[in-house]
Amino acid sequence: MNFASDNTAPVHPQVMAALEAANAAPSMPYGNDALSRDVEAKIAAIFERPAKVFLVSTGTAANALSLAAMTPVWGSIYCHAAAHIEEDECGAPEFYTGGAKLVGLDGEHGKLAPADLDAALNAAGAGGVHHVQPAALSLTNATEAGTIYSPAEIAALSAIARKHGLKVHLDGARFANALVASNCTPAEATWKAGVDILSFGGTKNGCLAVEAIVVFDDALAATLAFRRKRAGHLFSKHRYLAAQMAGYLDGGLWLDLARQSNAVAAKLASGLAALPGAKLAHPVQANEVFVDLPEAAIAAIEQAGFAVYRWFGPGTRRLRLVASWNSREADAERLIATAKAAI
């Protein structure tokens, strides 16, 4: 009954079994192991082209190191004002870039609009020594509002970025959820739409602690091995990161787990939206639900033992509910019934 975050979910048994198998014998350190090569091959197959792959243990490291590879210290990074890199990473992007500036733009339902991005870049003072210079665009898919960018939307934003000389980063902490919701291929949602670097998430979707920095632009990959080591994110026993990612990708598990969490979120959304006094704050397209409910319903949900977040803070009437790979439809139905009875 935990809908507070997909970070609360346990590790999927297939991922845990892959870790156990990796623990059976010695292996070379620092990524010089067979499992790491296997992961690189799997990712190349999934994305339909070779790519440089750098495994790290956290999404913050994946995002910050990716942005550091594409942004000079005098650069600026454009993102949504509610993006994780802006609100939830304690200055890590600024730290790893050596002082680059984040520029947050507003956008409905957690998404940027091409016209707004173009206007902001036109007004950025490019070339002027008194201004930071636009260097990167960071998009989040699925967004912090639980919505998704279609490949066409990513391509439109990437085209604006390219026009102004920016590289494009995609924060894919919930990339699997976005992908199954948009019914497209990994290639269509990334490099074919203009993405240069993807932070490919695993932790929120069944892994213990692994994210993949997937670099489609070889020139951007040139410094990442050094940046990762300098930042303290190159594991000596790297095979345990690789084992998680290999288990996650095997047999399309990563997509199956995302389909499960998306389905439970859809059930929560449809059931709660039908209640008197309830209103969805954003379209529910992935595994997050933001809903305004009467206080009596929220109190009943909390008293029944469901783990949820009031968004933002005590006393608010907006809940954020996040379905995980192991969320059950029966628990969603019980939460809906609890709210309905209270109303």
Strand and helix map with partners:
Blueprint: H1 13-22, H2 34-46, E1 52-56, H3 59-70, E2 75-80, H4 84-87, H5 92-97, E3 101-105, H6 114-122, E4 133-140, H7 151-163, E5 167-172, H8 175-182, E6 197-201, E7 211-215, H9 218-221, H10 224-230, H11 239-249, H12 253-273, E8 279-280, E9 288-292, H13 295-303, E10 309-310, E11 318-322, H14 329-342
Helix pairs in contact: 1-11, 2-11, 6-7, 8-12, 12-14, 13-14
Explain this structure.
- The protein has about 350 residues and is an alpha/beta fold.
- It has 2 domains: about 10-250, Aspartate Aminotransferase, domain 2; about 255-340, Aspartate Aminotransferase, domain 1 (Alpha-Beta Complex).
- Helices cover about 40% and strands about 15% of the residues.
- The chain is built from 14 helices and 11 strands.
- The strands form 2 sheets. The protein has a 7-stranded mixed sheet, with helices on both faces. Strands 8-9-11-10 form a 4-stranded antiparallel sheet, covered by helices on one side.
- Helix 6 (about 115-120) packs parallel to helix 7.
- The protein is globular and about 60 Å long.
- The mean pLDDT is about 95.
Question: Could you give a quick summary of the protein structure above?
Answer:
By secondary structure, the chain is an alpha/beta fold. It contains 14 helices and eleven strands.
Please tag this protein with its features.
single chain, 343 residues, alpha/beta, Aspartate Aminotransferase, domain 2, seven-stranded mixed beta sheet, four-stranded antiparallel beta sheet, 14 helices, 41% helix
